[in-house]
Design brief:
two-stranded antiparallel sheet; Rossmann fold; about 230 residues; alpha/beta
C-alpha cells in the first residue's frame, strides 16, 4: 500500500516504521511541510496518513502556518476511514483536529520510559503490542487531553494520555515507537544542545540506558509498526 507522511520538523524520520514498511512492500510519499512543501490537494492516492513529530507546539500557527492544514488533512482521511497515525507532535495535532486541548510547556519526559496500555489498549489491534507495559522512547513537554469520544489506549508515569484512538483507525501516540536506537543516536548528536538544556547528563547515561532498554523498545516499536500497517 502507498501512504502519505507529513514531516513537521527537520531530522524527523520514519525510523522503525519506515524499515518495517519497506520490508513489507509498502511505499510512501514524504512531504517536508516544515520546509514549505505544499500538502497534497487530494488524498485519493494514499491508503493512510502518518504525521511525525517536531519541536514546535501544536498551536504555533504563526511560525508554522501549515499546522491548521495538517489538521484539516487528518479530518479528511478520518472521514473516509483511511488510517491515520500521529506521533508525538502528530498526536497533538490529531487531538487538536478533534477539538481536544493542547497542554503546553509541561515538564520534559525524555528517554526510554515505560508505556502502559489501558484495559482498552490491551484489546486494541495496535496498542496491544505493548502487552503489560514496555519501554519506549519519549521526548516531549507538550501533550493533550483526550478528544471527546476517543478511546484511551495508553498512559505513563508522567503523561496520562500516551495513546488514543478516534473511530476505527485514527490514532494518536505521544511516545516515539518509530525511534529506534539508531534514531536516538542521531538525535543525541543533531540536537545535543537542546538535550543538554533539560537532560545535561544524557551523554553519560546514554550507553547504560540504551543497553537496558533499546533492544526491547525496538522490538515493540516494530510490532506496533506492523500492526498499524496491517490497517492500511
Amino acid at each position: 500500500m502507498h501512504f502519505l507522511v507529513i514531516e513537521n520538523y527537520p531530522h524527523t524520520e520514519l525510523g522503525t516504521l519506515g524499515r518495517v514498511a519497506a520490508e513489507e512492500g509498502h511505499t510512501w510519499r514524504s512531504v517536508e511541510a516544515h520546509a514549505g512543501e505544499d500538502l497534497p490537494a487530494t488524498i485519493d492516492p494514499y491508503a493512510g496518513l502518518v504525521i511525525l513529530g517536531g519541536a514546535q507546539n501544536a498551536l504555533a500557527d504563526g511560525a508554522y502556518p501549515f499546522l491548521p492544514k495538517v489538521c484539516d488533512l487528518i479530518l479528511k482521511f478520518h472521514e473516509v476511514d483511511k488510517p491515520v497515525l500521529g506521533i508525538c507532535l502528530g498526536s497533538q495535532l490529531v487531538a487538536r483536529a478533534f477539538g481536544a486541548e493542547n497542554l503546553l510547556g509541561l515538564p520534559v519526559e525524555f528517554g526510554w520510559r515505560e508505556v502502559l496500555p489501558t484495559k482498552e489498549g490491551r484489546l486494541d489491534p495496535v496498542l496491544q503490542e505493548l502487552q503489560t507495559g514496555r519501554p519506549q522512547f519519549h521526548w516531549h513537554t507538550d501533550t493533550m487531553t483526550l478528544p471527546e469520544g476517543a478511546v484511551h489506549l495508553a498512559t505513563s508515569a508522567m503523561t496520562p494520555v500516551q495513546a488514543f484512538r478516534v473511530g476505527r483507525a485514527t490514532y494518536g501516540l505521544q511516545f516515539h515507537f518509530e525511534t529506534g536506537l539508531q534514531e536516538v543516536r542521531n538525535w543525541s548528536e543533531q540536537f545535543a544542545d537542546e538535550i543538554k538544556a533539560h537532560t545535561p547528563d544524557w551523554p553519560v547515561r546514554f550507553d547504560t540506558e540504551a543497553a537496558r532498554h533499546a533492544a526491547g523498545a525496538d522490538e515493540t516499536g516494530a510490532a506496533i509498526a506492523r500492526a498499524w500497517l496491517d490497517l492500511l
